[in-house]
Design goal:
By secondary structure, the chain is of the alpha+beta class. It folds into three domains: about 40-140, Sandwich (Immunoglobulin-like); about 150-255; about 260-365, no CATH class. It contains six helices and 25 strands. Helix 5 crosses helix 6.
Length: about 375
């Protein structure tokens, strides 16, 4: 049995039957108005008069809420559709709501969003169309502003003890720096970037946007080439809240010797081809071919002088085999016959020997170098 009431606006009777009963919904009589009067004021959709989308002109990021977000959009039509969708409100009484949008590109920075909505209200089909003018506001995001202003929070300085860093070490810090930044970006960190890489006579200086990146670069480089690093802080300014802002310098000091060096330790047992400097110096004696490793106390900096590099070795003729410990070869400079030690790695069958001539004398070098 239906109950009757009267519409307070027009006086017509209002029955419950005029509105389908929904769980938790008030009856038509309780809402007061009849369907005719109800739909006179009814709006299916509430939409903003206009919408502005803030876009970084440099990197294409979009400002959402209180932060910049990378969207990777080729154009901003889809971005505008999403923004309009988030700004629209649908009436709570509407059911089975569907909508479609047709963007109209007015110019490079203006899109008219034609939105058509349909739904069911009080058992009646309703339809409404709204147009939302959308403007693309091109700005500069925080990250690009910092890059343009050469901002950096830490400096990584690559140096080596008693020598200049090799080309391999120089390229490694550049490669590691970009790799660390890419990893940070993949986690959503928009504050990660390399500000500047400067090759100097002494090494390489890398300026990066955060102290975390600087520390990671230093750790990875030392893990690869051994050595050590330390850090120091410099007060540069205060932020808007009065907090002190520091810039951190990470100073990397690589070992004095590298893989491929030929050194002469002060133990009197002859030169060594360095094969590794991780933790301690490991290599091969050029006099015997036996394994060499510096003591734990000496670490990667044993007392030794550098004689040259494995690639400095020259091929010469093996003249004769004297005994198990010595052979005769031609001096590659004077072509005189010289007696040199016969290490285990020397191939006497080939008739050709790679030798290095240095202040320590003439020594055979493994044909495979420092591998």
């Amino acid at each position: 049995m239906s109950r009757s009431a009267f519409c307070p606006r027009c006086g017509d009777p209002v029955e419950d039957a005029e509105r389908p009963e929904l769980p938790g919904a008030p009856a038509a009589g309780e809402t007061g108005l009849c369907n005719v009067c109800y739909f006179e004021d009814f709006e299916l959709v509430s939409a903003p008069e206009k919408l502005t989308i803030r876009v970084c002109a440099r990197c294409g990021a979009v400002h959402r809420g209180n932060r910049w977000v990378d969207v990777g959009a080729a154009d901003y039509t889809d971005v505008a559709i999403d923004a309009v969708s988030d700004s629209l409100g649908i009436h709570l009484d509407a059911e089975d709501v569907a909508w479609q949008v047709e963007p109209e590109q007015v110019d490079q920075n203006t899109i008219r969003m034609h939105c058509l909505f349909t739904g069911i209200v009080r058992g009646e089909p309703v339809e409404e169309q709204v147009v939302v003018p959308t403007t693309i506001s091109r700005e500069t995001c925080t990250r690009c502003g910092r890059i343009a202003g050469d901002y950096y929070a830490s400096v990584v300085q690559l140096r080596a003890k008693d020598r200049e860093p090799t080309s391999e070490e120089r390229e490694a810090i550049k490669e590691i720096s970009h790799a660390v930044v890419e990893e940070m970006e993949e986690t959503g960190d928009r504050n990660a970037f390399v500000t500047e890489i400067d090759d100097t006579a002494d090494g390489v200086d890398v300026k990066v946007s955060t102290t975390k990146i600087g520390k990671k670069i230093s750790q990875r480089l030392v893990n690869r080439f051994s050595g050590s690093f330390d850090s120091s802080e410099t007060l540069v300014t205060e932020d808007e809240d009065g907090n002190e802002v520091y810039r951190v310098t990470y100073a990397i000091r690589l070992p004095p010797f590298t893989r491929g060096d030929i050194i002469d330790p002060e133990d009197g047992e002859g030169p060594v081809l360095v094969r590794s400097t991780r933790g301690t110096v490991k290599g091969q004696r050029l006099t015997t071919g036996k394994r060499y490793e510096s003591s734990f106390e000496e670490g990667d900096s044993p007392a030794a002088r550098r004689l040259g590099r494995a690639e400095d070795a020259e091929e010469t003729t093996l003249v004769s085999v004297e005994d198990e410990r010595a052979v005769q070869v031609l001096d590659p400079e004077t072509y005189e016959s010289k007696t040199i030690p016969r290490p285990d790695f020397l191939d006497t069958e080939s008739g050709i020997v790679s030798v290095l001539k240095s202040r320590a004398g003439l020594h055979a070098v493994p044909a495979d170098g420092p591998k």
